[in-house]
Amino acid sequence: MLENFTGTTPRLQVVLDHSHPCCPSKAEMLKQHRELSMSIRRTIENNEEAGIRPSKTYQSFVAAAGGHRELNFIEKDVRNYITREVRNVSEQEDAKEFGKYLLRMKEKNQNFFFELQLEEDQSIKLAFWADARSRAAFEYFGDVISFDTTYNTNRYNLVCGSFVGVNHHGGNAPKGFLTDQCASMKRALEACMPTTVHRWCIWHIMKKIPSKLNGYKRHADIEQEMRQVVWNSHSKDSFDRNWNDFLLNFGLADNKWLSDLYEDCHIWVPIYLDHHFWAGMRSTQRSESMHSFFNKYITRNSSLIQFVKQYDNCLGSREQAERESDAADFHTVIPCATKSSIEAQFQDAYTHAKFREVQAQFRGKTNCITRLKNSALGYSVYEVGEQVSSSIFNKFVVTYDSVAAEVKCQCLLFESRGILCRHALSVLSFEQVSQLSPRYILERWSKKVKRRHTHIKSSHDEPLMEPRSKRFDQLVFRSQNICEFASESKELTAILHRAYDNVMAEMEALKAKRKGTSSLSHEDANLESVNELQSPPRIRTRGRPKNRLGSKLEKQIANATKKKKTKVLSEVKVMFFKFVAIEFIFLVNRLANV
């Protein structure tokens, strides 16, 4: 475009935007005609905070607008905004933001605990934190803990170690500690928690059977028989006999992996461990469920600050689920499956989730046949046969002391899970017991106990928004009630439209009057300086990364040429575990003093 100005020299001006009207059906595809309004941007930010994928966010805009053509932006614009504005945290600033987050959480609740271990260059080596609600819950449910380190979290290749317990719906060191099969963790636990019973995750061990034994001709039969020996040996002596027969029948006496497993049988075989209380946990799969949650929101390129924000979301969702379960326990009743007065005792005392587990044992009682073997002075020994298939009966020895009102079964379900088994219930029914001893109704599963942690909110960071974003959210929140009220009739809607027009005209006039002036405001977080904190070195990987480390670990074990790598990984894990264990004991001591 050629423009003439006062003087003799013409001036040429280039206008990159379209200077003529565009076809409406094609203009939406031109970058100059695509924009994200304030409302759209705030929705994207909130959805990103909640872990909603960009594609789902865009589809919600499409549904609200009535179609793709009604939007003046495309999905790529949503993704670009998330990448450039929402997730735009540099590696240099990542660690500083992570440190600021921990300080903010500490300021909000002094019972929030964290500690960082740094390298010489001030980069983060290890991080441990526990929010106030989790620490309070540990007082009630810290008897059994699962610890898993097989999840890869972020761009720095840091290992996530999660402590997971079991509450009543599902100040001392824990009585039981579950980990994956790692000799380094075993040594660390023996050194740091000598009174705690350590259990290896049986799921991880059984998952390795195909890779360890597939070189044998009858590997499928071997796997089936090994599972049979592990799960259906109801005494230590019977396990020893069954294991030796298994090795002889399949010619596996020289297999080193099986020999090593047998030497450590006391740390993973159920019959050696079920006389301890485990709250129903035999594997670290409760930790795996936490990992599946993280998989929904965290990618291999997630930063430290993104990880802790999504961890906040995880705690918040778990807290809400517990609140909803507590409300259901108090306001609804699950009907009894039988006419048993003992079942009614559990119905009155237990949470819904735990009462359903009890009911499963009452239903299983129908498959049991009870036979008295001998009795003297109120002490009786029973043999309970349970039909598990059309041709298989398992037999269990159950003792009943009528004087002490004590029942004990060979299957050890009550000792390990805190629930009376169907075999014991069959004997109690045979003995015509109508009221169960209080020792078998555990306070741990009770819905009537008021627990301190339920009055503590989980730590959740408040986003540090720009002042304009804060004002926008406040206005939207207030306008929703007005719009809901006005939508009741055409007359009310017309009144609101007129008010909108008047307010809009007044605001435009004020904006025009102030044109040419500007103001800048900045809200400081007022936190201690963390400017010296540095992010860990970023790990560059090839190909599509895996969140799970388990498959990699198994390959290292299977491949003898990679023993050196296995040793390095083991040293890293024991270093990490020792640090966390030390901090865990510190946390336990703090809880004991509260």
From TrEMBL:
Coiled coil: none
Residue ranges occupied by any SWIM-type domain in the UniProt entry: 396-432
UniProt KW keywords: Metal-binding, Zinc, Zinc-finger
Annotated spans, Disordered: 516-557
One Gene Ontology term of the molecular function aspect: zinc ion binding
Biased composition (Basic residues): 539-549
Protein's recorded name: SWIM-type domain-containing protein
Organism field: Arachis hypogaea
